[in-house]
């Protein structure tokens, strides 16, 4: 990364230079999963997809994925890969890294699942909000993320209606025999299209607490009650959808006209 025009983004030049640098630093010959973090409006999507395929064919990566792309951007990449003349399954992204939390709309994840993509979701606890430790949006506890510089990143979630709704989840966690954080993680993991969740911890016991969520057997009715409580206050999708890539449709129409002559 740097300040130069080729030191960022998803151009072919930057992708090829950075994978080589990463492999050198890691001391390995390939990586299992290479993620395209954030959509690049300045690089043609076709160039990015082709660059990923080049890395697979050269043996430098096994699979590639995307991080923080919206549903339309992901659909465009998948459709472009499928209609490419190179048309191999390896062209398609294999995994998605997205924010997820109890109460979030599952439409995105169902759509991703329809493409056969695995979801590796981050911030499943909504930056700590779903642990129930926050009760007053105007006065977050000292030393917490919401009281520091990260508060701006939490503004979509850190509202009094959201905090009040989270407090109403505590009886559900008691019925499930787990902590509120574990219940929130189990909510995410229950969906077949979610392959894993990315969680953070500041103490060893938090790691144990998080891992235990994977073994929970929660009554589905509890999850439905959670949805009913959180859905009315859950923020809308913060990313602006771009128009789906239409090049495949144009190519198909041209081919149809050509074949009819």
Ranges with pLDDT <50 over ≥5 residues? 86-91, 238-261
Please write the string of helix (H) and strand (E) elements.
Answer: HEHEHEHEHHHEHHH
Could you tell me the number of beta strands?
A: 5
Task: Kindly report the average pLDDT value.
Answer: 80
Radius of gyration: 21 Å
In order across it, which strands form the biggest sheet?
1-2-3-4-5
The coarse overall form would be: globular
Helix content: 40-55%
- Tell me the fraction of residues in β-strands, as a range: 5-15%
Main sheet record? 5 strands, parallel
Structural category: alpha/beta
Termini separation comes to 51 Å
Number of helices: 10
What does this structure look like?
This protein has 261 residues and is of the alpha/beta class. The longest helix has 15 residues. It has a 5-stranded parallel β-sheet with strand order 1-2-3-4-5. It is built from 10 helices and 5 strands; from the N terminus they run H-E-H-E-H-E-H-E-H-H-H-E-H-H-H. It is globular and about 55 Å long. Helix 1 packs parallel to helix 2 and helix 2 crosses helix 3.
